[in-house]
């Protein structure tokens, strides 16, 4: 081979090399000059993680600025769902489980949650104690992807104090997320699930911030944040509730129920009390028992806790989650002020009209008893309220008529939602002819349609089978007879089941029958009587204040309506209520040495029969307002299966009023038994 | 022995270019190893080790310069046997790393025979071809070369080290072409090879076999076409490398400032993907500068092949240049997403003593050929 050939070949070789270099250079130019923007974005996406900084949720304070609910910083442990092998994942889960005292399977389940996006931290444990946090940080090297964060947790400072009002907070549910998707919520955000936490969610939530953090391949932050957007704390709620009075209310309910349980009323396990400012509708106290500690919603609830709260499995008759202040009960004799109003306003009686009560009265072919076997003797309206005379009110109810009872019950706000700023308020029910008809007519008709059809069916088969015309005729006659029989029975049933009956007016007028009202409605009804007839909308939150103390929203009293009842009638009713605590009144012994003049009414509502056919203990009611001459507050309380109202709910009302008026305990008579 | 007069024939350009590439490489290596260091570590441990290999390589150049390359003829058979022995022994005493059994541990170091095998192959094949100068015209003359080349190449394939195998093929064709085989025959050979490889791979893919390549090897070979097909698995390396290069832009993010490198998103950054570090931190400008340095190196190498006094020298230079060019093509092509992931080092850059030493021996041979280009007359 000549030198020239070699040289030529080497030149070809060099040309090939040049081509290779040009290919590489063009490729690099494409990546680094033409497409660089695209790759720069990808590189930023690689290294920057937006870590949300949850906003501090607003606090809830009582009217005196006492913090009742707040956010507390706690440590949480999260894991990044890195590209881990199954083996590594299990190893990590085991290690974490032993440190946190959890089950390894729970950790794995959380990490495999399909809802969680990749490269988003998955929360494994909340409220982790400091010593465990220290241990995790020491062993960080063996815990890849594990991160400890500080996050706020809801703290109900006084544990089981007024939980029904606060409600609770949990991570937003998918349904809520869907409903509020335009408000900027995202998965994992905290959302008020009940009570004020839910009602005022938009005020309380605040605005989350975030920090841009540079992370390495394992998603571990490597530097101090690149950029921080500070969160804006949520607004605080200032309540109308006075924590001191509320505390007295809850303690009194507990104490009274314990006392009753020790005595003759083992089922006196639930009750409620509400106090309202009569001039504004501000709710000063709203307590319901049994209570619960809303802090348990921060973690995983045990089945026993869930059962105590909701009672769904064992049919626990006293589920703690229910706010009994907003649940309906038969009002018993506390309804009698409605009957009194109705009869006076319809001018069917004056306050001087009297009846003689012999212990019972015979009306519409039936005897109706008073609660005192010997009767109350000669009774006028004031005395009738004072001694709670049934015989008097049976007849006054009949005089006024059901329509007037219904009219004034509704004017006082009974049987309808008060409009308080809490969800799940029961409307209760004023019984009325229309209500009864609506309730039963269709069902009765349906029932008889079926019966008629059955008869028709039966005879059409028989008639078809019949051999002779004569036999056929006989069957037709038989059929018509049977149908007519049933039609007659329908009429009878219709009268009793659909048409309003006088006996219903009679029992309605003493607060039994279909009457069904919440303690909140009852308190508002008394407030309306006390303030001269203005019905206010009760409200819990006085104002919303931002974290710097600026008032964001001030709530004012709101008059819903004014009753048509004359001032004279209202004064008469108030006078009757005052007599209740005077000597001879049903609650005299309980309030005999109470330093503030009060006016009240006892009630004992029948609760039906137990499985042995015996009467169950009545629900004890007490309603009151005070001071009598210049009313400030109205209060209503019910204690379930507690017997007489005065000696159960009456004691609760007395304690609440004492707390409100700052009356020393020694000034108040302890215990006490009422007559009704 | 080198004589004073020979110094005049010394290719300083090649040496200086090599030194510049190595210094550039050490700087980049310091950035690439920065990320994985923890606080207690010596930040420059890898750089120091690499520099030691470099110094060792300089000594090797000195030693090689003292021997006339024609002495290789005498030792050729011996070198061939040593090469086979080393490659065989690695199968028995070699340690496995990243799926390939390619390392022989010696004390605290480990030797990678396949790196030296390339140099040994260049030397022995050059001697072999020089002896058959002018006897390679016919196609069947090429058959013995298959066996001569096939044995060491087969051993490397068994490790398995696909990248080195590719470089072997590059060396083979480069040297065969220059040695006098007809271009037509070389082309036919390339064609047949391509058909066989293509056929085998097609068969494997269409029948879903796990042979002759293991599934992961096959995935690595094919993923570069569409790395997003498996962006968290096999494609991850390619994608991160492309992001590193692309995000570097024209001027780069600056030394130690590459986020892909620093935050460890870029895999294998001190070895196979070190070129992406250059691209990220010094941008297109830096990558181009490095390619220009390599181009000068290759140009000088080919010039040496032209100026050589004999066929042996020409073939030695051709072999070494082929080796370097193929390394560049496969390594940079892989980083830029136009070549399969085969995992071979970037010469003078990737961390590894064996590679550095072998490449510097190559430089020594080039210098040796150049120094002795003139027939000396006294």
SS field, number of helical segments of chain B: 14
Oligomer: heterodimer
Structural class, from secondary structure content of chain B? mainly alpha
Most extensive interface: A-B, 38 and 48 residues
CATH class of the largest domain in chain A: Alpha Beta
Task: State the total count of DSSP E strands of chain A.
Answer: 23
> What is the name of the CATH architecture of the largest domain in chain A?
Alpha-Beta Complex
Q: Beta-strand level of the residues of chain B, as a percent range?
A: under 5%
Helix content of chain A: 40-55%
**What would you report as the Rg of chain A, rounded to the nearest angstrom?**
36 Å
Q: Compute the average pLDDT of chain A.
A: 89
Task: Report what the structure shows.
Chain A folds into four domains: 3-48; 49-239, Penicillin-binding protein 2a (Domain 2); 341-348 and 408-421 and 515-667, DD-peptidase/beta-lactamase superfamily (Beta-lactamase), CATH 3.40.710; 433-499. Chain A contains 22 helices and 23 strands. In chain A, strands 2, 3, 4, 5, 10, 18 and 19 form a seven-stranded mixed sheet that branches. The mean pLDDT of chain A is 89. Chain B has 378 residues and is mainly alpha-helical. Chain B has one domain. Chain B is built from 14 helices and three strands. Chain B has a three-stranded antiparallel sheet, covered by helices on one side. In chain B, helix 5 (113-131) runs antiparallel to helix 13 (311-335) and helix 10 (235-248) crosses helix 12. The chains are: A alpha+beta (676), B mainly alpha (378). The A-B interface holds A 1, 5-7, 9-10, 12-14, 17-18, 20-21, 23-25, 27-29, 31-33, 35-36, 38-40, 42-43, 46-47, 83, 214-218, 222 and B 35, 133-134, 174, 177-178, 180, 232, 240, 242-250, 259-260, 263-265, 279, 283-284, 287-288, 291, 294-295, 298-299, 302, 305-306, 311, 314, 318, 321, 325, 328-329, 332-333, 336-338.
